[in-house]
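<context>
A single protein, sequence plus fold
<entry> Chain with its tokenised backbone below
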Amino acid sequence: MTISSIIADLKGSERTLTVYDPTDETAVSSVERHFEVQNVEVREATAPEGPDDFAVLHDGDEFLAASELAELRRAVSFETGLVDATDLAETTTPDVLKHVSDATFTAYGKRRMILASREIEERAWRAGGGELHAGFQFLSLFREQWDLYGRIADRGVDVHAYGVPDWEPPTPEWLTVHDDDTDEIRDSWFVVLDAPDDRDCALVAEEREPNEFSGFWTYDEALVGDVLGHLRSAYS
């Protein structure tokens, strides 16, 4: 088992995001661009009752989540502060973005990867325990996120950081460093939460082109377990 094989074996199910009575077509276009590289179809509809500019995510007939269109547009346009966040208590992720589970994606740039990572990191912060495994490709990139991960650790989360050893981080009790110069570590970006409350989740991706990532994120406990099992076996 490798990260590549886990990604290759996953086939995400297609979701539909329905935007009801939009008054801002620019916002709809922004949302469409965000989801065009995922298994999410964006469509517009009219509702006989209810507010305008409201987005509903569903899987077939199953309701998954809903968000205001303006809130969703700000998030996918990186206007909410999630990308540069260091205090997760002051950040919010729209519910729709939290529920595109088992979603595969292609051609994610760095900013979109950071936005997706924030969902897992925020979940770890709120869980207040467990383990958070994060692959930074190079440990020097972990240095840029040190304050954020310190805040997560302050909540009782044990952090495992993976990367090529181009920087030697401090060694507080909450941190385990897995420094390894392998192709898999160089090419992989992952954030995986082993939560104490059965709220496991993971973002796993490979860099297929410079600053262009393909992969998935999931809330499926078994799939998260596969990823954690591989990391623990290969990099113990």
Notes: The chain has a mean pLDDT of 88.
